[in-house]
Amino acid sequence: xxxxLLRTLAGEAVWPPPVWLMRQAGRYLPEYxxxxxxxxxxxxxCTTPALAxxxxxxxxxxxxxxxxxxxxxxxxxxxxxxxxxxxxxxxxPVLAPVRDAEALGRLRxxxxxxLAAVGETLAAVKVRLGEAALIxxxxxxxxxxxxxxxxxxxxxxxALRQMVWQNPALFDSLVDLLTEETVLYLEAQxxxxxxxxxxxxxxxxxxxxxxxxxxxLGPTAAIAARLRRSYPQVPLVAFxxxxxxxxxxxxxxxxxxxxxxxxxxxxxxxxxxxPRPLALQGNLDPWALRVGGVALEEEAKVLLAGMRGRPFVFxxxxxxxxxxxxxxxxxxxxxxxxxx
Length: 340
Ligand code: CP3
Fold this sequence. Notes:
The chain is of the alpha/beta class. Helix content is 49%, strand content 13%. The chain has 16 helices and nine strands. The protein has helices at residues 4-9, 30-36, 42-46, 49-63, 76-80, 101-105, 116-126, 141-150, 158-166, 168-191, 209-230, 247-253, 267-272, 286-291, 293-307, 326-337, and strands at residues 67-69, 85-88, 92-95, 133-139, 196-201, 236-240, 258-260, 279-284, 312-316. The strands form two sheets. It has a seven-stranded parallel beta sheet. It has a two-stranded antiparallel sheet with strand order 2-3. Helix 2 packs antiparallel against helix 4 and helix 8 crosses helix 10. The radius of gyration is 19 Å and the shape is globular. Bound molecules: coproporphyrinogen III (CP3). Coproporphyrinogen III binds at residues 22-27, 36, 42, 69, 71-75, 87, 92-93, 137, 153, 200, 202, 319.
């Protein structure tokens, strides 16, 4: 096993650490904007393997990252379950909300069968990768449920939180269904060539500790257990964003190989409290990258110094911001490559 990311996720303190960035493909790259203009809409873009494979590879060509993450979106799964989905400029994704048993009953199972395009993208990318590892992903069941229930990102997510507390039986059914669908979808991505899989639970921070255990930690552990049986060699990385107080418990009980951490956490301090075999991924503030200069240099150096000697995957605490200058990303890669 020579790929740096895979060695790190197996518990080795590889140095300099492997690096890739959440949302490394995207609007901050002029070549992405040109490619994006070739597709009728964002779903068509994600489900056209030639375009999606090219989008996946663009940041690797420019920066030589240690991993490619398949170009897709966490909301393709509900879309493939029959939910209307549109990405509106300046507004983000908009879905037909699922708020009662009837709407839940209309969700079509076995969505992965209708997402064969993502497998084709993975296969097309895999043969062109060299030493970079290939990452497949899905949304955490809770985060996908957030978008399904609310229908769009709202500041306070009122419909979602109302359902969590007022109709837990319905919300349990929704999360259970999404958990099963997520397992099948990730298994299909692994069968198509993904060497690592990642779960983005971007809205975990909306929940109290008890609901976090039930709707984020529980499903993550269930998915990890299922994948360990079907694909024991493929590491799972979870990203329960802003689940700060529960990260220790997550590390100990979820069964994942790696934990992605947002910028609000003192990563070296967390690392000091964890069992060694768990790799940590994160957590440079995307704003430090966007601003660049001294802010970027200092923040990256502190993180590198603090994580030296540990299994660590250099990443951001959240996605690359759309107006990040690409030269800042190149500078960051140089800094990491020179880490002593
Ligand atoms: O490079 C990569 O990271 C791979 C592709 C990827 C995308 N989305 C492409 C995308 C990945 C891994 C995601 C994950 C994703 N999608 C998450 C979890 C991570 C996170 O950011 O918290 C979430 C919550 C989504 C849902 C989503 N998709 C939103 C809220 C939006 C609109 C807001 C935005 O950032 O534009 C999207 C659209 C989207 N997904 C874009 C990209 C490149 C922008 C589409 C465009 O070109 O206009």
